[in-house]
Amino acid sequence: MNDHKYVGLDVHQASISIAVHNHQGKRISQAIIETKIDTIRDFFKGLSGTIHVTFEEGAQANWLYDLLQPLVAELIVCNPIHNRLLAAGNKADAIDADRLAYLLRAGSLKSVYHAALSTRPLKELVHIYDCLVSDCTRVMNRIKAIFRSHSIRSAGRSVYLKADRDQWLAHFEQPARRMRLQLLYEELDSLNQLRHQARLAMLKEARQQPAYKKLIKVPALGPIRVAQIIATMGTPFRFRGKRQLWAYCGLAVVTRTSSDYEFVAGKLLRKQKPAQTRGLNHNYNRRLKQVFKSAALDAIGREPMKGYYAAMIEKKMRPEMARLTVARKIAAVVLVVWKSQEEYDETKLIKQAA
C-alpha cells in the first residue's frame, strides 16, 4: 500500500549522489554512482515500488529528464533558487541529496518546466539563432568601438557594409590597427552567414509546429518571434491565464500592501487604499520579454494597436505604460489563440484578451 520511495539526486558531471527515503521520511539507502546512462538506468531498475525523483535544474537537466521520465512515476526538476533549505547548515553532496528527498516527500519543491520532445528540436535551433545574433551584435559593437576610440564618427550601418569597408579602413594608417579591424570584418561576415543558416533551419522547424499557422496571423509577431514563442513556451496550458503568462514574461506589476484590514464598530472591514507598485517582476524569461516588448513597438505603428495605443495616450497614460499595456495585450492574444486553436479575429480576440 505505502511502497513509495522518494529519491533525491545531487547531479555533477562525473558522479551523482543519491538518497532514498520511504513513505515515512526515513532514509533507507544512499549511493554514489557514475553519471552514465547505463549506470543510472541500472540503479532505478533495481528500485521497487512507486518511485518519485527530484534533482535541481542545471547543465544536465534536459538530458537526465529525458532519461528518467520513462523509468519513474513522478519526476520533478526543481528550481534551485527556491531551495533555501539546501543553503542552511553543512553542505555536501550526500547532505544535498538527502534534503532534496526530504523536500520532495514534503511537497515543498517548485518545479521547472521541461518542454516535450516535439518542441525540443525547435528549442535547440532557436537557442543557437539567439546566440549567433548576440555574437553578431557583440562584433558590431567592437567595430564601432574602434572608430569611437579615435573620434571617428560612425553612425548608421555604413560602417558594416562590404562596399564601404575600404573607405572606413582608410582612416587608419597603422598596419596592426587596420588588421585588427579587417579581422573583425571577417568575423562578422562568418557570423552573418551562420546566422542566416540558423534562421532558415529554425523557421523550417517552426513551420512544422501546429501552432505556427495560428500565431503567425497575430499582428506584429512575424516568423522569428513566433518560432521563439513556441520554443520557449512549449505549450500554452502551462499557464492558467494571462496573468501567469505576464509574470513569466516579466510584464506583471509587483504590488505591496500592509495592514489591509481594520475593525470599525466591531466589524472587520478592508481599508480603501491603493496598493503600492514596485515596478515589474524581476524573475522572468528574458527571451519572451524581448519578443513581446519588440512586438509592441512594431504594433503601435499599425492598426489595430495604433488606435488602441493612441487612445491610452489621450487619456494621459505615460507612453512607457501604454507600451507595456500593448505588450500585455499581444501576450494575452497569443495565449487565447494558442489555447483555443481558433483563427485570429481582430474584433473578437482583442476584446476577449482585454
What are the main properties of this structure?
3 domains; two-stranded antiparallel ribbon; alpha/beta; globular; 5-stranded mixed beta sheet; Nucleotidyltransferase, domain 5; 354 residues; 49% helix
Could you explain the architecture of this structure?
With 354 residues, this protein is an alpha/beta fold. The protein has 3 domains: 4-106, Nucleotidyltransferase, domain 5 (2-Layer Sandwich), CATH 3.30.420; 119-206; 212-271 and 279-352, no CATH class. It has helices at 37-45, 61-68, 93-106, 120-148, 165-169, 175-206, 212-215, 222-233, 242-248, 286-299, 305-314, 319-340, 346-352; strands spanning 4-11, 15-21, 27-34, 50-56, 74-78, 253-256, 261-264, 267-270, 276-280. The strands form 3 sheets. The protein has a 5-stranded mixed β-sheet. Strand 1 and strand 2 form a beta hairpin. Helix 6 (175-206) packs across helix 8 and helix 9 packs across helix 12.
Short account of what is shown:
The chain has three domains: 103 residues, Nucleotidyltransferase, domain 5, CATH 3.30.420; 88 residues; 134 residues, no CATH class.
- How big a fraction of the residues is strand? 5-15%
Q: Into how many domains do the coordinates divide?
A: 3
Taken in chain order, the helices and strands follow as: EEEHEHEHHHHHHHEEEEHHHH
How many angstroms separate the termini? Answer: 49 Å
Total of helices: 13
The overall average pLDDT, rounded, is: 89
Strand numbers in spatial order across the main sheet: 3-2-1-4-5
State Rg: 26 Å
Helix-strand makeup class: alpha/beta
Helix content range of the residues, please? 40-55%
Low-confidence stretches: none
- Please describe the biggest sheet, giving its number of strands, its sense, and whether it closes into a barrel: 5 strands, mixed
Oligomer: single chain
Q: Characterize the overall form.
A: globular
E-strand count: 9
